[in-house]
Amino acid sequence: MKRRLLLLLPLVGFLALGAFLYMGLSINPFERDSALMARDFPAFELATLEDPERVVDASLLEGEVTLVNVWGEWCPTCKQEMPQLLDLAERGVRLVGIDYKDTREKGSAFLDEFGNPFEVNIFDPDGTLGFDLGVYGAPETFLVDRDGVIRYHHTGYIKPEDVRDTILPEVEKWR
Amino acid sequence: MALMMRWLLCVLLLVPALGQAAVEVREFDDPVTEQRYRDLTATLRCPKCENQAIDDSDSPIAGDMRDRVYVLLQDGRSDKEILDFMVNRFGDYVLYNPRLEGRTLLLWGLPAALVLLGALVVILMVRARRRTASRRLSAEERARLDALINRERTE
């Protein structure tokens, strides 16, 4: 009898493997964590969109929990996301923008049209800061704590319910 | 007329070349570096497109990554340094060939472990079978065997 049960072992192993692989099918590869999680915000030295003479670096993000949003005038989802970002700014969250692979004219026109929730915008026309952040599309949003360490990463569109369900709790957690 | 046909043929022959215009033409000092560039861009996975290497993708980020691989090669960086550079920014996701480390031990070790397990099972089965085959006959079995043989003889 005992030996008979042993014969079932390959079947059980096969079913376990099947279940494991089946679970893999429902994983969304775009929900993977950023490689920069729990690491310092990358060093940079770039002018702001508002004032080409003003050069900022990573120390801009120290001292206060900040939401860094990567956007561009060319990115349609960024336009849909602006009401949510304005909402967050109204609730007292500090926002800094990165105008990614854009021109000054188009970037400024975008903010004039859709509103400006950002304390300041870092102008990144060649996408070098975006590259160091591992950004592969826009919008992407990073939460940086008061020590300048990346604590949360959101790929893609921030839905209205994401503001309450994920973004605000994360901001509170690191404050 | 014949001249026109010839021109048309020239234009048609150029069409396939236009289809590949997305991949940049790069200059290398030596063929070794060029081969390394080809190998690296073939093993790095485009972060935006799920299942394409960066040498095969038109996505803007794949283009940026190819540029960066080229610049780093011209800088004299090693393959490992270039792969580390990409993993530091885009994560293990961009490696088509995952590294052997603590976290990936199961991934690399499981197939080998299963092959060893299978070999062990086969060895044990063969041994068990051989043991039953060569087992000595009991006195009772021997008597039955003798009886059977003798029956044949007497018939």
TrEMBL record, chain B:
Residues 10-148 form the CcmH/CycL/Ccl2/NrfF N-terminal domain. Pfam families: CcmH. Keywords: Cytochrome c-type biogenesis, Heme, Iron, Membrane, Metal-binding, Signal, Transmembrane, Transmembrane helix. The keyword Mitochondrion does not apply. Residues 1-21 form the signal peptide. The chain crosses the membrane at residues 105-126. InterPro entries: C-type_cytochrome_biogenesis, CcmH/CycL/Ccl2/NrfF_N, CcmH/CycL/NrfF/Ccl2_sf. Belongs to the CcmH/CycL/Ccl2/NrfF family. Possible subunit of a heme lyase. This is Cytochrome c-type biogenesis protein. It comes from Halomonas flagellata.
